[in-house]
Every structure is written in C-alpha cells, then in structure tokens.
Design goal:
By secondary structure, this protein is of the alpha+beta class. The chain folds into two domains: 198 residues, Glutamine Phosphoribosylpyrophosphate, subunit 1, domain 1 (4-Layer Sandwich), CATH 3.60.20.10; 65 residues, no CATH class. 33% of the residues lie in helices and 23% in strands. The strands form three sheets. A six-stranded antiparallel sheet has the order 7-8-1-2-9-10. The protein is globular.
C-alpha cells in the first residue's frame, strides 16, 4: 500500500527518497538516506532493518545492484518485501518479492528507482520515474515531489493515501531535509507545501550547524534592536529579558536592515536567518534629572 522513488542528483551528488502510503507515518519506517552512500526504501510488509543493511553495503563500496542482490539472497521472508536503492555512482536497483502486497511493480534506471505495491495499476512506478527524469535540471527536492505527484496522478494505490514524506542527504552527515506528513486527507499536497516552505531555509540551518559564529556575526550586522509595538507595557518588556527570539514576519517595529533576497515573492535563506535571530535589546538610558532653580 505504498509507492516511492529514490534518486540521486547528478549535479550535486545529493540523494533523496520520497514516499506515500495509506498507512500512517510511512516515511518514518520505510525511507532512509546516507551522505556518500545512497538512498533506499524498504516497503510492503515492511522490515525497516533492511534499509540500514543496504546503506551499510553501499557505504562499503558495493553498487546498489550488488547490495540488493546480496540482501535478497540471504534475507529470510524476503519474498514479502519490496526494495529500491540508488548508490553514490548513480547506479540503481529495485526488487519486488513474489508475495509483495497486491499489484506490485518496480522500475529502475540510471540515477533512480521506483516501486509500489497495492497499486491501482502497474504503471505507477514508471510514471514516477519519468517525472523524475523529465526535470533533470531542477533541484532534487522538486524532482522528488514531482515524482510523487506523478505517481498519485497515475492512480497511486487502491486505498486513499494518508501519509507521505521526503528525506534528502547532501554532503553533511545528517539528512538536510526530513519532512513528513504522518496522517492527512491530502498528504502529497501537504508535503509539497512543506517543501516549498522549507527549501529556501534549508541552507541557513546547515550554516547554523557548521558556522555558528559566522551566523551570529551576520545576525548582529544585519539586525537592529526592536522598537516595541505601541501600547506594550515597559514592565512586561523588562520581564521578557534582553535576549528574545524575534519573528520579523509577524512583529511590528522589528525589521531586518537587509531586504529579503531572491526577489519579489521569494523568501530567501537570509530572510529566514534574520527572522529567527536573537536580537540584543540595548538598555535605554535613563533621562537626566531635571535641574531645579
């Protein structure tokens, strides 16, 4: 009751997986990525342990095809499983056991593999792969979302889809993107919306992890102390403390000096970086006492 795709970006070397299902929280147990190794999905009567086995083998230098063949050859009950993998060189492989759920199909080509079970029709994985390949010049996340939408448009699975997720690994040793919709009437649409919100911010969160001092200097250089909104009480401001997170998108009187990057309608990573900076409030000097004659 799942359809998924794993893919590699030829330009950046990033890996990603995207998945949807009638089951709750499908991405939590079925999709996995590892920087420098690859991306995998384990589904259909899912055994989440198979994800780590495939990633370990590819991290050790095995191709996706060799890693998958070895796993299938040694794993008990593998006939119930469905697997897809892509490796660091862009090699891909897929597998559907003879006891995979319902109508099951899989397909792979250079740089991507797609698979699905309990499908409305066997053409769903092929539609996903075609959508991924057709957008080769786009960002990896956008390609993965397009593939998931194409799978749904091609029929998806026989039951209503309720959960979806996307996970992407770049050069950092953690997934830079890990977005999930664990239960919703339109999880694919919700996931696409989350991606549009997250993508402009993703790089700034990497900077915070790797270059915190530079991030702090940027905040200090481009933000200014907040002016309190009209009507706020001084005693309330004093109790709030000097260091307080400021959301420049919703608070009046707080604006970063730099305009949002990326042009009209585009929320660039700098904008989001500044929007979540801690702004130091400078104490206001007490007025000098009035002189008396």
């Amino acid at each position: 009751m799942t359809f998924s795709l794993v893919g590699r970006c030829e330009r950046t070397g990033a890996f990603g997986a995207v998945i949807a299902s009638a089951s709750m929280a499908v991405a939590a147990r079925c999709a996995a990525v590892r920087a420098g190794a690859g991306a995998v999905c384990s589904q259909s009567t899912t055994d989440p342990r198979l994800r780590a086995e495939l990633l370990d083998a590819m991290a050790g230098g095995a191709s996706a095809g060799d890693a998958l063949a070895a796993l299938v050859g040694r794993t008990p009950d593998v006939a119930y499983r469905q697997l897809a993998a892509v490796d660091a060189g862009g090699g891909a492989a897929s597998y559907s056991g003879e006891r995979a759920l319902g109508t099951a199909a899989d397909i792979h080509a250079a740089g991507a593999a797609a698979a699905g079970n309990l499908l409305a029709n066997r053409g769903v994985p092929a539609a996903m792969l075609a959508a991924f390949q057709d957008r080769a010049g786009d960002d990896l996340g956008a390609r993965l979302i397009a593939a998931l939408r194409a799978g749904l448009a091609a029929g998806g699975e026989v039951s209503p889809v309720r959960s979806a997720g996307i996970v992407i690994a770049e050069s950092q040793p953690w997934p830079v993107t890990d977005l999930r919709v664990d239960w919703h009437d339109d999880p694919v649409g919700q996931l696409a919306g989350l991606w549009q919100m997250w993508q402009p911010q993703a790089a700034s969160y990497v900077d915070r992890a790797l270059r915190p001092s530079a991030t702090a200097r940027l905040c200090a250089a481009t933000a200014r102390p907040c002016r309190s909104p009209e009507g706020s009480r001084p005693d309330e401001r004093g109790r709030a403390g000097r260091h307080r997170p400021v959301d420049t998108r919703s608070r009046s009187g707080c604006r970063p000096r730099a305009a949002p990057v990326g042009g009209r309608g585009c929320r660039g990573s700098l904008y989001y970086l500044l929007a979540t900076c801690f702004v130091t409030r400078r104490p206001t000097a007490s007025p000098a006492p009035a002189r008396t004659a």
